[in-house]
Prior knowledge:
The chain folds into 2 domains: about 5-175 and about 215-240, Rossmann fold (3-Layer(aba) Sandwich); about 180-210 and about 245-280 and about 295-320, Alpha-Beta Complex (UDP-galactose 4-epimerase, domain 1), CATH 3.90.25. It is about 35% helix and about 20% strand.
Amino acid sequence: MTEFPKKIIIAGGAGYLGSVLTGQLLERGYAVRVLDRLLFGEESLAAWRDHPNLEIFRGDLRDIRLVLEALRGMDAAILLAALVGEKACDDDPVETVGVNYVATIALAEACAQFGVPRFIFASTDSAYGIQEGIMTEESPLNPMSLYARLKVQAEQKILSLASDQFAPCVLRMATIYGLSPRPRFDLIVNLLTMNAATRGRCTVYGGKQWRPQVHVADAAHAYCLALEAPVESVRGQVFNVGSNEQNYQIGQLADLIREAIPHVVVETTDVPPDLRDYHVNFDKIKRALGYEVQRSVADGVCEIYQAIVSGQIPDPDQEKHRNA
Ligand SMILES: NC(=O)c1ccc[n+]([C@@H]2O[C@H](COP(=O)([O-])OP(=O)(O)OC[C@H]3O[C@@H](n4cnc5c(N)ncnc54)[C@H](O)[C@@H]3O)[C@@H](O)[C@H]2O)c1
């Protein structure tokens, strides 16, 4: 098995996380092939469009012929493509099962069959659902939505394919925040900041639920480390991606917004529309891969606020900035 992969395919490489990861991998000298339906356009890859080491395959993960062509010659595959978020998945359950499970497993099986030795699957801390205590990778899972349930089922199936020739691993990420070439304003920190920047006020629903956070550039960096780690330390492994210090209750996020943005009015309501509540331990990825985050929620709030008030993102309310 190639110990140091050089050619990487990223399914979903034009998305919020994918466009940041594509940039990081190109900067580290990898050849990157993005396979993406470009649901939110291709502007997110504009900065690297002419990069000699970037190829863009526009198409659908469910198109097995395209997938097999795109896998040719690759040393590793990263799977980010999905319908992302509970609302987007609930809006179209049939498409969701097709992409987030059936095509997801087909890609992993194709990699295992056709000799793409490393595979990294993007999963979510939402897999923990509502639980007391601090969740490690070994904690029981309690997915509470179609989105989270399919992530859990896909994790299990993908990890079961591990062999001497195939090293799958799962990155279970905290909720992401921060600026990306494909800005998303339906994620909690980004949404609160956008409302603060455009309306001078934002509303926090509930307050006590734990929801760990990670900056998008730090999340992307976890994929770089997982690619570059000795294969034996990632084969068949699950890693929570985030940091113990960025386990926040929703109410604490409201306080961070207040501190970072002067004069903002933050309202709180008692009724939480989203009951997910999980406090996560991130020791394993630090221990096994030497992972440390570099950015704080305040950094993310400031960069998004600046991008909106400076006009860099002229219309953050546009649909293309939300997944549902
Ligand atoms: N953003 C978060 O807070 C977060 C947290 C945990 C896990 N994740 C996971 O990380 C991954 C990336 O999330 P994101 O926030 O970048 O989402 P995103 O919606 O911005 O990116 C998904 C990308 O996949 C592409 N895509 C969707 N369906 C496709 C298909 N059928 N064929 C080809 N391409 C397709 C889209 O065009 C888009 O570019 C997802 O798997 C998501 O579940 C995200």
